[in-house]
């Protein structure tokens, strides 16, 4: 496996003036340029204050620079808010999906060739969204049930994905499983 460059910097947590996103960290231009211009990727793995590690993307801030969003879970785990200083370490995400895959989903993708075919025909962003949904629960059984529902849903709909319909499929499956 090729060695990837790792960058460290300190930044101040800032706030967007919009309703879409709340807090973010500005990435120094020389670091974002390395990933975007030299490596041709925005997918990164971040570690904040040596406590929270997550797969994410460098996001444009609307002013020609790039930033990393902090969601509510990140803020809660780090006990940080607007104006606080945060130590950040980032490196290129070289994983297959740009997001961690739950072992249950990985196993089902290996076992279900048609489900795998439909899953891999989706855009990378949709694949990551589904991996997030499957990987979020703590219990292995719940992750397995979600992975099963995702692949069955994709097969029933010939690979077409509608997140509202998928959410209904999860609800229907919960009624069946429990």
UniProtKB/TrEMBL annotation:
SUPFAM superfamilies: AF2212/PG0164-like (SSF141694)
Superkingdom classification of source: Bacteria
Pfam families per UniProt: DUF1905, OmdA
Name of the protein described by the UniProt record: DUF1905 domain-containing protein
Originating organism: Parvicella tangerina
Organism ancestry: Bacteria, Pseudomonadati, Bacteroidota, Flavobacteriia, Flavobacteriales
